Amino acid sequence: MSIEIKMAWRNLWRNPRRTVLSAAAIAFAGTLLVFMLSWQFGAYESMINSSVKINTGHLQIQAKGYQENSDIRLEIPDPESLISFLEKLGDVEAYTSRAIAFSLASSEDRTYGAAVVGIDPDQEVRVSTIKRMIRKGSYLSSSDTNQALVGKLLARNLSAGVGDELTLLGQGLDGSIAATVVQVKGIYSSGMDEFDRSSIQLPLNYFQTVYTMRGGVHKIVVNVKSLDCVSAVKKRIAEKLTTVDSKKPLVVLDWKELNPGLVQSITMDLASGAIFYLILIIVSGFSIMNTFLMSVFERTKEFGVLMAIGTAPGRLIKVLLIESTLLTLAGVVISMVSGAAITLYFQIHGFDFAGASELLNQYGVSGRMYTRLTPVSLLAGPITVMAVTFITALPPAMRIRRLKIVEAISFQ
Amino acid sequence: MHFKLPWRNLWRNPRRTLIIMAAVIIGVWSMVFLSALMRGMSENMFENGISILTGDLQIHQKGYRSDPVIENSMSNPGEVKRVLAETLPEGARWASRIRVNAIAQNARHSAGITFVGVDPDKEKYVSFIKPAAVSEGKYLSEGDQRRILVGKALLEKFETRIGHKIVIMAQDTNGEIASKAFRIGGVFRSELSSTEKQYVFVSKDAAKELLRLSSGISEFAVLLEDHKRVDQIAGRIAEKLPEGYEVHTWKDLLPMMKAWTAMIDGFNLIWYVVVFIAMGFGIINTLLMAVYERMREFGMLKALGMKPVWIIRNVLCESFYILFLGIVIGDIIGLLSLAPLFQSGLDLSAMAVGAEMAGLSRVIFPSLNPNDMILANTVVLFSGLLVTLYPAVEAARITPVEAMMKT
Amino acid sequence: MKIVESINVSKTYQQGKVAVNALKNVNLTIEKGEFMALAGPSGSGKTTLLNLIGGLDLPGEGKIIVNGNDYSKMNPSQLAELRLFKIGFVFQAYNLIPVLSAVENVEYVMLLQGAPEKERKEKAERILDEVGLGDKYSRRPNELSGGQQQRVAVARAIVSNPAIVLADEPTANLDSKTGDGLLTLMKKINEKKQVTFIFSTHDRMVMEYAARMVHIRDGQVAEDTKK
């Protein structure tokens, strides 16, 4: 161990109380940052996952313009060729086709507008969580025809229960009136009010017959192995789409484009979080700046003696900077350990957010929140704290250069 | 003398005093600035929330809330009007509406919407749907039979124009599907594009005709001058109304917003505490240092007969000066930094969709709530003095002999 | 052989708003191996002169030449190097590095000089033995008495075989018996190794030990006596 490190370490323990308090200040800020970032990442992940799982999937193939303007005529006329392409594509975990038509849904004495969605019962299970969200009745099977799943809030508005009949009235692809009577087979609840209030699911084959889709669909929803391979798969699909001969051009959209609100909510939250964190770090920096300043100030005489016997100022600055680095490092390591410990606890046990669950549901987060410790959430905060405290320690250390030996020696 | 001595001690090491004061200033500034922004957001959310037809409170027929259909409308609105006339304080406004879920359709598009029949002359005082919100065409007039107001976003979605027709289909009082074509007489804008897509407005008479309704009303919405009195007034109205009605405040009607508001309040407090802890470490450390290097002095003062309580008071007084100056300067800088935002607002258009998910407008104006500022200042001042007790007691415990041995 | 030459040295300090003439036209020559004291009341300028000889400060006018080196022609890092190799310092008190043990304090100078670790340790221990602290190698300064601390300071000052040791009031914080012991030690080193010792002091005992006494009064040499 070099003499500088030895001296720096021992200097720290000349005033243990001050050192401990300063390290605690750093540890406090660091711990908070690790935890808060992990908390945000956890929230984002569950927001993304649930939105992807309940609704959008990672990628969707649609006719151009369908996302902005869900016109029944903006269809994918020949989904089969795309599906056989997807089947051979690596990294694709699951895919399913959906067709959607806005319709009037009437129960015995109620009428509401709803998005009627044709789903492929077998494929849909692999892509979305709808089967697990069934609260009453049961999920569709591939042999079903005029059976329907209804969102909980819509079912309540229609005062319809399992087994009741609903009349659907809409417009087919060819402009003809599409009308049918379906039986409620299951009622689901996703927690997202918007979704639960406005959707009815039918088997895709039956939907295509009723709405004269002639085999066409509106969306092919694709899930990939993990979020990381979304862009690669998207690119390969996009290449394929340019070769597909379709009356209306087809596009592939990723989950960010499908959920612009979600992405912006996350950006907004991260940005405002960053402002708060920065202020916290600056306040902490000022809080411990005095420690560095004082530890230089009160040792003025000692520095004078050291310089008198021939120590170069650079060597003393080195000792001081090692000192502040050791102090910061101690605080930062503590913060990483305690931050990780707290985070891991809540990663396993979760937070009960009873009070805000209604709020969180709308973002697709269920009543319990789980933190998510990632390398970024573990390191970003502590490293920033470390950098800022190092900068804080520079001006006091640089004072050594301006020190006059004679004045320093006689400093009382 | 008691106040002069600590003040002079403070400036024995001006650099140290200024540094710790800077920590307090930045902390207090962040409290003032960020809480005004958060408060601005929450008020913006609140105003958007209640202006989108909710108002401060609403009166419905019992059962309407869980099953909002035309059968659950009030058959005798006259008695509600009488109660409102008796109970509402000056400055409060109310409007009654007919409101059903319906389908809007034109040749190319259809969508589920909320069809609202209003008294234009009353409505304009209660909710956002007033002449100023109409960007093209004209506001509704009393008894308008054929004109309909639609939102800009719906207009675009339907690829239609002012003067064109739009068909509204809804279930009438007999349970039949009634439909009627309206002419788009005006286009309204709203802070939130979801509102522009959700609602269409006609005169109450036009709605009655479509729904075959004689005198029924779906809801009364009341806007108060003083939003804080909502619970009290809602209680009074509920008391006077006969059986069969329900009174709901915005807190019941917009549970999301209530949760947001509570979260923002809670968040502000947590932020105050976090910032305080961060600067608390610095305050303790700085004063400990200041006290330690003056130990001889304290010992001497004690030898001269100074009581420990006086020493504590001296140290607390020093801390008070730091905190007080830090708070005042922090407040001033906070106000100065907010000033331009009061003028121009904080532009969130880059994240408009995300903002809208939270019910926020595209531009947010900060809102300075004296209570937030007082709370922030109090937290800093009192907790600051509280942590100062540690160094103060350390100083007071020294005995003259010990102190003289220190160098 | 001349080891220190002070030629027409003047020095003025700015103290607050007042200019203080600390030294006025001081001419002094010190020979190698002298054991001499600069005496005078506080404020007389003796410490200033000592600091100038040590290269801690530069004269306003005149020249200081130590061991053939003219300070006015040297930059600060050359001065530091000179101090490191040729000059040892012993200060009034508290001049050890508090976080280093006795042996580490002595080693530190050799470390600055770039001596290899093994040599440092051996030599430091040997010197500590010489000054009578053979059993206190690993004590920290705050675990040593005032006299022992000054012995470590002397050990540190002589470890690099300097030409001069400058001692500013070395006995001021010691009782007379301890001071006597310290002076005996320094005298012994002076005789054995021919190291020049220059003291600044107003301690009568130091003056008794000194072979030459230079009295400084109001910044000028008032009296120069050799025993």
Which keywords apply here?
heterotrimer; A: 412 residues; alpha+beta; 2 domains; six-stranded mixed beta barrel; two-stranded antiparallel ribbon; 55% helix; C: 227 residues; alpha/beta; Rossmann fold; six-stranded mixed beta sheet; four-stranded antiparallel beta sheet; 7 helices
Could you describe the 3D structure shown?
- The complex is a heterotrimer of chains A (412), B (407) and C (227).
- Chain A is an alpha+beta fold and 412 residues long.
- Chain A has two domains: 3-52 and 262-409, no CATH class; 65-248, no CATH class.
- Chain A has 15 helices and twelve strands.
- The radius of gyration of chain A is 31 Å and the shape is elongated.
- By secondary structure, chain B is of the alpha+beta class.
- Chain B folds into two domains: 4-49 and 257-405, no CATH class; 57-223, no CATH class.
- Helices cover 55% and strands 18% of the residues of chain B.
- Chain B has 15 helices and twelve strands.
- A six-stranded mixed β-barrel of chain B has the order 2-3-8-5-7-6.
- The longest helix of chain B is centred in the first third of the chain and has 41 residues, at 14-54.
- Chain C is α/β, with parallel strands linked by helices.
- Chain C has one domain (2-226): P-loop containing nucleotide triphosphate hydrolases (Rossmann fold, 3-Layer(aba) Sandwich), CATH 3.40.50.
- Chain C is built from seven helices and ten strands.
- In chain C, a hairpin with a 2-residue loop joins strand 4 and strand 5 (69-70).
- In chain C, helix 3 packs across helix 4, helix 4 (117-130) packs across helix 5 and helix 5 runs parallel beside helix 6.
- The chains are: A alpha+beta (412), B alpha+beta (407), C alpha/beta (227).
- Chains in contact: A-B, A-C.
- Chains A and B meet through helix 2, strand 2, strand 3, helix 10 and helix 13 of A and helix 2, strand 2, strand 3, strand 6 and helix 10 of B.
